[in-house]
Sequence to fold (446 residues):
Amino acid sequence: ALRAVGLSKIYGSGEVEVRALSDVALDLYAGEMVVLLGASGSGKSTLLNILGGLDTPTTGSVLFEGQDLTASDDAGLTRFRRDYVGFVFQFYNLIASLTARENVALVTEIAPDPMDPEEALAVVGLEERMDHFPAQLSGGEQQRVAIARAIAKRPKILLCDEPTGALDSKTGIIVLEALESVNRELQTTTAIITHNSVTAAMADRVIYLADGRISRIDRNASR
Amino acid sequence: ALRAVGLSKIYGSGEVEVRALSDVALDLYAGEMVVLLGASGSGKSTLLNILGGLDTPTTGSVLFEGQDLTASDDAGLTRFRRDYVGFVFQFYNLIASLTARENVALVTEIAPDPMDPEEALAVVGLEERMDHFPAQLSGGEQQRVAIARAIAKRPKILLCDEPTGALDSKTGIIVLEALESVNRELQTTTAIITHNSVTAAMADRVIYLADGRISRIDRNASR
Ligand SMILES: Nc1ncnc2c1ncn2[C@@H]1O[C@H](COP(=O)(O)OP(=O)(O)OP(=O)(O)O)[C@@H](O)[C@H]1O
Ligand SMILES: Nc1ncnc2c1ncn2[C@@H]1O[C@H](COP(=O)(O)OP(=O)(O)OP(=O)(O)O)[C@@H](O)[C@H]1O
Ligand SMILES: [Mg+2]
Ligand SMILES: [Mg+2]
Fold:
């Protein structure tokens, strides 16, 4: 579904150059569940943002069903993200002036076949807090609103940047089960960045990043 | 060192009342390392913010070395936080317009016996990134700047809200070792909110919160 070829991402130049990604090639197959692991600063968020059309690589290309995203302009990338991608950000990126329900509805209103905002928020255990604003919610509750917002869209591609970082293990498992059922029932191509090894067990493949490169890929024999 | 008596925290009123804390009593002994565990939304951040003088309870008091913080005005709370407390926030709360080094220096400049900003950033593995701004740093790198900022102060009390949430396990262990050595060498009274069971093993006591109440306290026999 999504193919990355020869990706690099370089910030700055000269003495203060930071190579966030170097020569990354990756295929995400339709309906697959992939987990990205790697140390803090190894390039995970940078890779996920480029795959999701939120950032452009310095070199290389990203192909979505054969169409070259890197050759698209901003309007083309916006259409790609809006029509095909659900994204759970590492910092949640909720809109502070909208309630939990409104944050989800903002995304579902423009989707062709979404879940109800109420349904998506109930899946992540927030049915009692729908009309609260982000500032009135705990860290983990805000994270769950961000997850509800991404899955409510029923996207073709679901990219999650550390979706359980702020959650206790029990709540984290509820969220991972929600992501797994979206992947299974809708064949949503899913990539999850995590530090949580329980999540890695769910994946069809685990891709390890180190210093901006793919250092290892494990295939999960039991899936 | 820090004593909480009969704490409650209620948000809103009537139908939309949320009881974040109910009847919490807790002693933090001088030099102790305590871990706070509990589900998302159970009241951990609310309790830590009240203990650190960042928020006021609806009922109850917090005593620091016998002095009642809840009877202090804003200026009194600001002096308490500035003179005695290092705080690692769940959302890092770094100043975007300052580099990593400047974010740490802002706190150390007014402390009586601080570490050098460079030294504190080296302890958390960020010596190469001191002159970068938060927007140029990954999630886990920003979190580590927030930790360096708190420990550089060499505070009497160190309160950490999920200090390893955005870190891989290897980097997380480096940070936990830094917190443990501050606690051991400076006898800093330390409370850490975490979802990470490795951290719980470091504690003198583990305090479990559920629905705004303390549900259990374990004492670590091996410490
Ligand atoms: N301003 C507010 N208005 C209403 N409810 C609030 C407000 N701030 C916090 N709460 C609620 O109080 C409860 C406790 O919040 P708190 O942030 O302490 O939880 P937490 O244990 O830190 O959770 P997490 O692990 O998700 O960070 C939550 O249900 C939260 O939604
Ligand atoms: N705007 C920028 N300017 C300079 N360097 C940057 C910028 N954005 C990211 N970086 C660097 O690129 C590297 C990769 O960042 P990235 O956010 O992808 O890491 P990550 O694997 O997601 O880390 P974490 O697990 O801490 O979130 C990091 O060293 C980071 O500091
Ligand atoms: Mg990241
Ligand atoms: Mg919290």
Summary: The helical segments of chain B are 44-51, 74-84, 100-108, 117-123, 139-152, 169-186, 197-200. Residues 169-186 of chain B form the longest helix (18 residues).
